Amino acid sequence: MDIAGNTVFIPGATSGIGLALALRLHDEGNTVIVGGRRTALLEQITAEHPGLHAVQIDTTDPGSIQRAAAQVTAEHPDLDVLVTMAGIMRVEDWTTPSGFLASAEETVTTNLLGPIRLIGAFIEHLRSRPDATIMTVSSGLAFAPLRITPSYNATKAAIHMLSESLRLQLSGTSVAVVELEPPSVRTALLPGQEESEFAMPLADFVDEVTELIRTQPDAREIQVENVKFLRYGEARGDYDHVVATLNHLDPHGVRRSGPRSG
């Protein structure tokens, strides 16, 4: 993916990483369409950022995805980058069904079925373009688990393997697959994460992602330095240490007191 000259659709870009990346890509010389559920918020974003486009979409609703895809491709027939950004992260207690079942189903619908349905809605259009990109969004937690967010961890691990598999299937076509793997970033994904000293400042994250896209346009995975501790624990042979550090556990798996890293 080149850093400039693209037409990019980012569902789930009304806040956090999605919005910050949308604004940066726009500044870099791309046509950017942000997607979100709330029309009033989309109107506010486009009013505050002239040149940015917006389309209403609920990525938990298959009908909404199809309508948005039809609108985006009609209004922007040169669309060549899809970023499957929308996602939720919930704290769950898997010791009782009431502590996790509804949350887990919602997380799977948003984080896994959403990207699958988005790719299904856009794949034929992207394959018609001479050079196109699907950017999936997994997480450092796809590679090392945070104990309080089992469904989030699982869906992001699934997105990683989906990205690997889709890249194989699309080999030899005009569509590249690149996986963005954020670490903990200071956003509102979880309560308190915006102020977490362990989370990466949002501006720093987007700066590094932008530079990686600029300098490594053929990269399969976009990994800022902060995520590599989680990403390569198994390869380094220190996976147990990574998991213990992430969850503030002692060597015997007992949780220590202290601040939580997301």
From TrEMBL:
Please provide, alphabetically and separated by semicolons, the GO molecular function terms listed in this UniProt record: oxidoreductase activity
> Which SUPFAM superfamilies does UniProt cross-reference here?
NAD(P)-binding Rossmann-fold domains
Would I find Iron among this entry's keywords? Answer: no
Q: Which UniProt keywords apply?
A: Oxidoreductase
What domain of life does the UniProt record list for this protein's source? Bacteria
| Name of the protein described by the UniProt record | Short-subunit dehydrogenase involved in D-alanine esterification of teichoic acids
Entry similarity comment: Belongs to the short-chain dehydrogenases/reductases (SDR) family.
Organism (species): Blastococcus xanthinilyticus
The record's listing under Gene3D superfamilies reads: NAD(P)-binding Rossmann-like Domain (3.40.50.720)
